[in-house]
Amino acid sequence: MVRFAPRYGIVSPCLARPIRGRHVRAVNDNAEEWCGSWLQESETLDTALRMFAAHGFSAASRACDAASIADKSGDDERSQFWLEVCRTLDRRLAKDFAQQLSR
Fold first, then answer.
1. Could you give the CA distance from residue 1 to residue 19 in angstroms, rounded to a whole number?
2. Are 76 and 101 in contact (CB under 8 A)?
3. Which terminus of the chain has a lower count of CB atoms within 10 Å, N or C?
4. What pTM does this model have?
């Protein structure tokens, strides 16, 4: 657990600065009422969260490995699914892998 504690007697700029420009909404179980994309991404997000729970910080590379295996076996749909899971966890790794596939 990380706890932020500014030096005694100082008001930190991050605490004094107001939130500008946008209203922050929490994403919860009733998100499909206000966000159409939640239903499409729920399987990807669910898989990404399960991968992260099982593998920790190496979850993105595991998803990338699964996409590579699916690509080598010729299953493009499954490869794209695992690429989306990888993109959910690590955009840069997914971008590099997608570039590697396009070569």
1. 24
2. no
3. N
4. 0.61
